[in-house]
């Protein structure tokens, strides 16, 4: 076999043969091939008729996608006649955007969009790793114009490579060890990204409440969540800084939106990005004008951080509040302040509504919120400092994410090479 990116640095088998299957290529001479239907069964789940959000002893969790991917269980199945799947079983996502993906099971009940795969006469761990090879094929061949789904006939006729039992065990042992090391390296880099973001948030919090000069004299703000601030700064209510604006927009303006993650958009969302676009575009008569340096927020999402500074002229939904500056300020500074956890908690406390779903932050409450007000010149300096931190954090995060992608690609290549015999693992 010729040296390739898949087998460089590893041993290979002495003799190979053509598999006759394009997506498998050459395989070790002594390996066998069988179709999936002779080595495994699959049983699609059944959508439970009775699901509760209240846990009771003896109930099994319902395996939603969130739960399958490691989230907390929040639904339990009342119908105990539906089969429970044990932890560690192999599942196949049958319908939807992730159709064709194999995933390890947590204990619980699967729906009709998921199939339980049971391999027999083959090492279970080897079968799990080989499923990644099948996945590559299935995800390219899902069918359905609307919701893609797995073609059962295609799955049943998919070839599975069968090394000897000893080789299956050796391959599984090798991949267990190597993938664990790769996963650990990925987790370390993901933790580094999280720490970078956490550090950025701490620096922003310090900058918008303490300024950039660590030696400046401080005074008590008399507000618990703010604490000490530079003695030449002010603490005031938003009504001293902003007035509500209800100026109407017009059809020539972009419709802007506010994200709880990224603040106010500078471009209008397309119909594909905004599922309510068709309704929104039909009636613009009640939309509000926004100007650069305004602050705007979604009344229903402010308590989650849905607030930001406007950078371009446009208009926003009637469900938004627009606050226009009454004095010389830089609204980017106040966006950074308003999006700190402490200020978001303040907006949460002032929001009206019995439940989270019904919470609203109106202008009457927003104008009462307490804000830290430094001199205008310092606002600009702090915004520049935070933008520099953000840029540096983004650069490092991008590098870490690229490293993670390379590790994931290497993991995929390693699994693919081992289960197709492109490399010969130790112990074989």
TrEMBL record:
Domain Type I restriction modification DNA specificity, chain residue ranges per copy: 30-190
InterPro entries per record: Restrct_endonuc_typeI_TRD, Restrct_endonuc_typeI_TRD_sf, Type-I_RE_S_subunit
Keyword vocabulary terms for this entry: DNA-binding, Endonuclease, Hydrolase, Nuclease, Restriction system
GO molecular function: endonuclease activity
A Pfam family it matches: Methylase_S
PANTHER family per UniProt: TYPE I RESTRICTION ENZYME ECOKI SPECIFICITY SUBUNIT, TYPE-1 RESTRICTION ENZYME ECOKI SPECIFICITY PROTEIN
Family assignment from sequence similarity: Belongs to the type-I restriction system S methylase family.
Protein's name according to its UniProt entry: Restriction endonuclease subunit S
Source taxonomy: Bacteria, Pseudomonadati, Bacteroidota, Cytophagia, Cytophagales
């Amino acid at each position: 076999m010729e040296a390739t990116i898949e087998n460089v640095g590893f041993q290979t088998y002495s003799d190979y043969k053509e598999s006759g299957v394009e997506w498998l290529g050459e395989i070790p001479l002594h390996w066998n091939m069988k179709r999936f239907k002779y080595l495994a069964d699959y049983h699609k789940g059944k959508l439970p008729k009775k699901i509760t959000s209240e846990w009771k002893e003896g109930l099994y969790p319902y395996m939603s996608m969130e739960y399958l991917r490691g989230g907390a269980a929040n639904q339990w199945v009342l119908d105990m006649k539906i089969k429970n799947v044990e932890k560690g079983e192999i599942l196949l996502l049958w319908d939807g955007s992730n159709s064709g993906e194999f995933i390890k099971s947590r204990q619980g009940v699967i729906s009709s969009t998921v199939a339980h795969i049971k391999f027999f006469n083959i090492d279970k761990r080897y079968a799990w790793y080989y499923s990644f090879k099948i996945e590559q094929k299935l995800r390219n061949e899902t069918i359905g114009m609307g919701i893609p789904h797995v073609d059962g006939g295609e799955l049943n006729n998919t070839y599975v490579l069968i090394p000897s039992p000893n080789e299956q065990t050796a391959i599984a042992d090798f991949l267990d060890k190597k993938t664990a090391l790769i996963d650990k390296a990925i987790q370390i880099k993901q933790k580094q990204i999280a720490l970078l973001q956490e550090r950025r948030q701490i620096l922003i919090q310090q900058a918008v409440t303490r300024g950039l000069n660590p030696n400046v004299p401080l005074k008590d703000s008399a507000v618990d969540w703010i604490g000490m601030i530079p003695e030449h700064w002010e603490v005031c209510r938003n009504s001293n800084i902003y007035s509500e604006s209800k100026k109407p927009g017009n059809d020539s303006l972009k419709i802007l939106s506010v994200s709880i993650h990224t603040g106010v958009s500078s471009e209008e969302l397309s119909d594909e990005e905004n599922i309510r676009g068709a309704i929104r575009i039909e009636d613009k008569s009640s939309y509000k004008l926004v100007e650069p340096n305004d602050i705007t927020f979604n009344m229903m999402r402010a308590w989650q951080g849905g607030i930001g500074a406007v950078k371009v002229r446009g208009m926003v939904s009637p469900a938004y509040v627009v606050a226009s500056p009454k004095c010389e300020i830089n609204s980017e500074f106040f966006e950074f302040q308003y999006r700190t956890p402490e200020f978001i908690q303040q907006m949460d406390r002032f929001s009206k509504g019995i439940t989270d779903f019904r919470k609203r932050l109106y202008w009457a409450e927003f104008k009462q919120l307490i804000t830290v007000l430094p001199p205008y010149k310092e606002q600009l300096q702090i915004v520049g400092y935070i933008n520099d931190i953000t840029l540096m954090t983004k650069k490092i995060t991008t590098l870490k994410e690229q490293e993670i992608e390379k590790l994931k690609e290497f993991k995929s290549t390693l699994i693919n090479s081992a289960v197709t015999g492109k490399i010969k693992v130790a112990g074989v």
